[in-house]
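User: Design a sequence. Structure:
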């Protein structure tokens, strides 16, 4: 079912990163909080190709409007939510704008910016983040769907990275 659902998602040049971040912040705000000092963080995995940087595809098909990434990052900073960004895939000179874009989001929110060009690099990033943010998760029935989708996307990204690296040899 997950594969079929992922196959049906619209694809295009660029991702509505601001919209995704904004949705994450909405979920954080809606979550019940047991203590006044509860903290939250977002880990943003991306190829860095935000639809703001690929304006010809902005907004993506099926999306009525796009939340500017700078606005979503400012909202995260106002809420005290750190956003840790991870650029997936090998960083080349042509990715300078993508790297700067993700680094700016992380800096605005007092988060960290990482690059993971291999599957082992992504594991290293996760291990680093493990020490920076809590790994305790409260997953509701609705949240479990997102966890499954995120896991499927992470596996797909890892396979794509491995195939890309293998094709160079």
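Assistant: Done.
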């Amino acid at each position: 079912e997950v594969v079929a659902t992922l196959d049906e998602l619209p694809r295009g040049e660029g991702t509505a990163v601001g919209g995704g971040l904004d949705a994450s912040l909405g979920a954080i705000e809606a979550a019940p909080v047991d203590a006044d000092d509860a903290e939250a963080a977002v880990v943003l995995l991306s190829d860095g190709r935000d639809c703001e940087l690929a304006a010809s595809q902005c907004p993506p098909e099926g999306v009525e409007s796009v939340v500017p990434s700078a606005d979503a990052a400012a909202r995260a900073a106002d809420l005290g939510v750190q956003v840790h960004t991870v650029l997936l895939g090998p960083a080349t000179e042509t990715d300078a704008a993508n790297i700067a874009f993700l680094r700016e989001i992380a800096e605005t929110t007092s988060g960290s910016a990482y690059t993971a060009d291999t599957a082992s690099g992504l594991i290293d990033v996760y291990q680093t983040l493990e020490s920076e943010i809590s790994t305790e998760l409260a997953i509701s029935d609705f949240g479990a769907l997102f966890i499954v989708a995120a896991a499927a996307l992470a596996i797909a990204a890892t396979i794509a990275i491995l195939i890309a690296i293998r094709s160079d040899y």
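Residues 82 and 110 are 6 Å apart (CA to CA). Helices lie at 2-8, 17-30, 69-79, 96-108, 119-132, 141-167.
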